[in-house]
Amino acid sequence: MRVLGIETSCDETGVAVYDGELGLMAHSLYSQAHIHAEYGGVVPEIASRDHVRKLLPLLDECLEKADCTRGEIDGVAYTAGPGLVGALLVGASVGRSLATSLGVPAVAVHHMEGHLLAPLLEADAPDFPFVALLVSGGHSMLVEVSEIGKYKVLGETLDDAAGEAFDKTAKLLGLGYPGGPALARAAESGDPDRFSFPRPMTDRPGLEFSFSGLKTHTRNLWRKNFKQANAQADIAAGFQQAVVDTLLIKCRRAMKQTRSAHLVIAGGVGANLRLRKAMSQAGRKYGWGVSYPRIEFCTDNGAMIAFAGYHRLRAGQSEPELICARPRWPLDELRDLS
Ligand code: KG4
Ligand code: ZN
Fold first, then answer.
1. N or C: which end of the chain has fewer CB within 10 A?
2. What is the CB neighbour count within 10 angstroms for residue 283?
3. 119 Cα to the center of ligand 2, angstroms
4. Which residues of 32-180 form beta strands (DSSP E)?
5. Whose CA is nearest to atom 3 of ligand 1?
């Protein structure tokens, strides 16, 4: 079975072709980040319009790379949520209509399920069950994963997502957009121990996160110290270390609580090298296996949607002929594959 995947939930247009026997045949990605950079964050209306402009040419490009014609596609998977409604509707309309015109089934994919399954695209794919730390621009959550579609959310953020905290902190430090990679770059020449930062919500039990206080703490530090030498890099490094330590403490708790032996890290913040290093070290120390997607599949992409959609379509799941977008869609509402 060969599946075309379409991702348009935020500011990346992604398309991919995944084949059950051949694996990932091709993927194409176009990022709108340079357009939104001018505004310091994603402008939803501009995002929708740019997906309209880019999706069909990208789809043709991807099929050509995969050496695959439209007629050779057995099913279409598109991100139906969560995300920006206008942006989602572009992928959903194109995906659903294409499937109808080709006479093949279409499946609506949950964006976070795409992230969660992305490490399974790698050669050293983890086995089920595992605990997943999903850290993106819109979500931060710990999920107990028994198999595809069987997800128990163990904890979520009470306010900002980890990626959102990176983005907002980068903005207040004058580091531009997208904030995560910019802050990580600035932190490379910084001393993470020069200023002290809290490790939020680690002094009480539970697996919830909260990052907005950390952002306020950083703002206050910056206001007091911005004229001092190397303050920007040192504050960036201290902030990054605080996020990494906090995520690590919560992962350790989740691993203990679920008695899991394997941890998966996915979502945009999973591209953070400091986080990857800290999690790998913890894996060696505590005897967990640790998996991540390759860096380019941490952030939004079509490959993870094609892959998640392939598994659902192969299990016989598909959507009626309705264009469906679900800007809010709890992960644990998903059906399993049986
Ligand atoms: O998964 P993603 O592409 O989109 C959402 O589903 O939200 O994640 C984007 C987020 C952004 O907040 C971005 O700043 C963050 O991931 N990010 C990073 C890094 N690369 C991307 N955060 C920290 N370090 C990075 N290297
Ligand atoms: Zn994402």
1. C
2. 18
3. 14
4. 75-81, 106-110, 130-135, 140-147, 150-156
5. 299
Buried b (16+ CB within 10 A) or exposed e, 36-60: beeeeebbeebbbbbbbebbeebbe
Q: How far apart are CA 17 and CA 62, in angstroms?
A: 7
Give the position of tokens 């989602």.
88
Separation of CA 296 and ligand 1 centre (Å): 11
Residue 213 belongs to domain with CATH number: 3.30.420.40
Is there a domain that residue 121 lies in? no
Q: Is the peptide bond before 178 cis (omega within 30 degrees of 0)?
A: yes
* Domain count across the chain: 2
Q: Please state, in angstroms and rounded to a whole number, the distance separating the CA atoms of residues 202 and 247.
A: 9
From ligand 2's centre to the CA of 117, what distance in Å? 12
Q: Among 84, 157, 299, which is best to mutate for testing ligand 1, by the most ligand atoms less than 8 A from CB?
A: 299
SS3 assignment, position 88: helix
Task: Give the domain extent around 69.
Answer: 2-116+300-333
Single pTM value for the model: 0.98
Q: Inform me whether the pLDDT recorded for 167 exceeds 90.
A: yes
- Which ligand does the CA of 274 lie closest to? 1
Report CA(269)–ligand 1 centroid distance (Å): 5
- Tell me, using a 6 A CB cutoff, whether residue 268 lines ligand 1: yes
Cβ of residue 178 lying under 6 Å from some atom of ligand 1: yes
Could you report the per-residue pLDDT of 189-231, keeping only the tens digit for each?
Answer: 999 999 999 999 999 999 999 999 999 999 999 999 999 999 9
Ligand 1 centre to CA of 28 (Å) is 18
